[in-house]
Fold this sequence. Notes:
Layout: H1 4-19, H2 33-50, H3 57-71, E1 82-86, E2 93-96, E3 100-104, H4 105-110, H5 114-129, H6 132-154, H7 163-171, H8 182-199, H9 204-219, H10 221-230, H11 234-248, H12 259-268, H13 277-286
Helix pairs in contact: 1-6, 3-5, 5-8, 5-9, 6-7, 8-11, 9-10, 9-11
The chain binds zinc ion.
Amino acid sequence: MFHVASRRALAAAVFSVSLASAAPAAAINLFSVQQDAQVGRQAAQDAERQLPMLRDGTTEGYVNAIVQRLAAVAPGPRFAYRARVVNTSDINAFALPGGYVYVNRGLIESVRNEGELAGVLAHEMAHVAQRHGTSQASKAYGAQIGVGLLGQVLGGRDHRLGIGEQILGNLGLSALFMKFSRNAESEADRVGAQMMARAGYDPMAMASFFDLLASKQRGNPSAVSQFFSDHPSPQNRSASIRAQAAQLGGGRVTQVGGLQTVQARLDQMPAASRRQAMSRTASRLRRR
Ligand SMILES: [Zn+2]
C-alpha cells in the first residue's frame, strides 16, 4: 500500500517515535484508511459478541441522528460512522477504527441534555477521525519488533499480507482497545469541540459533561471508575474545553430532540448489567 521511499521514511519515523514517547498523537500510522475500516469492523464484531448489546431501535436511532450531524462536519477520511448502545450502567463510551462508536446505556441515562451526549460522541468520533486507534497499534508494533525488523516489514518482504493484518496478527485485536495517550485525549477534546460548534451544538456542553462526571465521581465512584481508567481526569479537561469553547463562539444551537423520551423508555427496561464491559472485552481479546 505504501511506496518504497515512504516505507523507509515510515521506518525512520517509527524509530524516532520509539525514542521520543511524547511525540504528537497522530505521528505515525502504518495502516491505510481502508484498513482502519477493515480492522475496525473485525474488532467491532468481536466486541459485540462479548458485550451485552441494547438492541433498541428508538435509542439507537436517536444516538445515530446525533452521530450523523457530527459525521457531516468531521475532519479526515469519510468513515461510515455509526453508534451502538451497550446495555451496561457504568458511564462510558468508546470507539473503534473506521467509525464504530459504542455508548453505554448508563451514559445516555445520566446526561442532562443532548449537548452533553453529543460532546461524548464528538470526542469518540474525533479519535476515529484522527485515526488514534491504528496509530497507537502502529507505535506498539514498532516498539515490539524493533526498527530492523520493521524495516523489512515496511520493505514489503511479505506481499501476501497487508501491514495492518501483520500488525494485528502480531499484537492481537486488543491493540485496538489500548488506552490512548494524553496527547491523543487532548486532541480528541479539541477536535470534538470544533465538530460540535460546526454541527450546531454548544461546545460548552462537552465541558459540562466533564463537570457532571466529576460530581458523579464524588457521589457514586463505581459508576464512573471505568471512565477514569480509560480517560484523563475531567477537571483539567473541563477547563481547557471551556477556554476553547469561548473562542469558538456560540453559533445557533439546534437539536435532534427526544432525549427525555429515550430516557423514559430506558427507565422502563430491565436493569442494565453492571459489568465493566470494555475492560473485560479487552482482556478477553488479549488472551487469544
Ligand atoms: Zn478519549
